[in-house]
Each structure stands twice: as structure tokens, then as C-alpha cells.
Amino acid sequence: EIVLTQSPATLSLSPGERAALSCRANQSFSYNYLAWYQHKPGQAPRLLIYGASTRATGIPDRFSGGGSGTDYTLTISRLEPEDFAVYYCQQYAASLPYTFGQGTKLEIK
Amino acid sequence: QVQFVQSGAEVKKPGASVKLSCKASGYTFTSYPMHWVRQAPGQRLEWMGWINTANGKTAYSQKFQGRITVTRDTSASTVYMELRNQKSEDTAVYYCAREKGWGYFDHWGQGTLVTVSS
After folding, report:
1. In which band, very low, low, confident or very high, does the pLDDT at A94 lie, cut at 50, 70 and 90?
2. Measured between alpha carbons, how far is A100 from A2 in angstroms, rounded to an integer?
């Protein structure tokens, strides 16, 4: 099973600042099959990025994803008030189970 | 627009079963696989299993093998997830999610809280 570790656990920033969230896997996996989700309390998770770097439909271009192998990053270039939430990475490599990171909470400083 | 409506909150005693539903609308139901993902309090999202909505084929996480059954009713555009012999550790919010392709989820239900308590 692929284990994903996200860092930091909590990130305290102000609107307008840049956020960089990390997701590290315990083994490399194929085709950069990594997704990022935004999750707000009481809401359904929202797909942001798939294939490590492709923005989902309707996602603003301030969200970008990168990385390969075992190290992946979600970057939010200029934080908007609505961006403060919990972010999860997920791998969907060839073999089940799909797994998620433990999440990074992005909070207002 | 794509939408999923999940069934309401449940309270169950240990050892009981729960069957949750997830009704899809806004797209052709049989065109996309559906998955179940849960989140226990303070825990990460956890993938449980999936169903090919076209042919009914399923696959489950080893963790839940023997306790979980995912089914679908194509006439009602609804997927179901039954979890048997529940334990307190099964207390969680359960989500259905549509797989867009290759294993990532582009739309999710709003979640159903299941509380397992004596």
C-alpha cells in the first residue's frame, strides 16, 4: 500500500500570500497518478488537481500542482479568503487501494 | 449539473449493519464508476470500495473485505453501500464519489454521518 505523508500539518498564512503544500509517498508510482482535493467542513471534497499538475474544470489558475516520483506539491499563488480549508492528496496508481494523505489545514494567520 | 444526494444520518449499535444510498443525477449513470470513501473523526479520508456502474463489478479494500457490499440500481441511478458487523471505529462520515477516469474523483456526495454506539 502506498502511504502518503503531507506537510506541514497546519499552515498559517494571510490572504495574498503564497502557499506550498507537500505530499510525499513511501514509494514511487506510475504516471504521476496524484490528485489534490480541497475540503471544507460540512461540504463535499472538491477536486483541484489530477495527474499531479492538471487543473480540474473550473479551478482558478492560482492553484497549481507539480512533482513526480515520490514528491508532489500543491501551490496556491495568492491566497483568497475562500482558500482556507483542509487539503488532501490522493494517489490512484495501478494497484488498489487508493490512499489519501492525512491532510494539511490551511488557516488564516 | 452533476449531483449526488446521499441518505440521511444513521445511528447503529455495534454488530448491526447499515446500508447507505447515493442517488446520482445530471449525467449518464452507467458511464462512470462510483466509489465509497469514509472519514472517521480526526482521521484521513479512507477508500473503501468501488463499483463499475455499467456491469456491477466491484472491488473492495482488504480492510473491509467480508463486511462490505456495494451495489447499484441503474433504473434509479443509485449506488448503495452496506457495511455489516459494525464497530465503534466505523463511526465516520461516508461519501460516495464519481470516478472521472483512472481513479480520481471529480464529484462527491455531501456525506452521511454514521454513528456506531451502544
Report:
1. low
2. 9
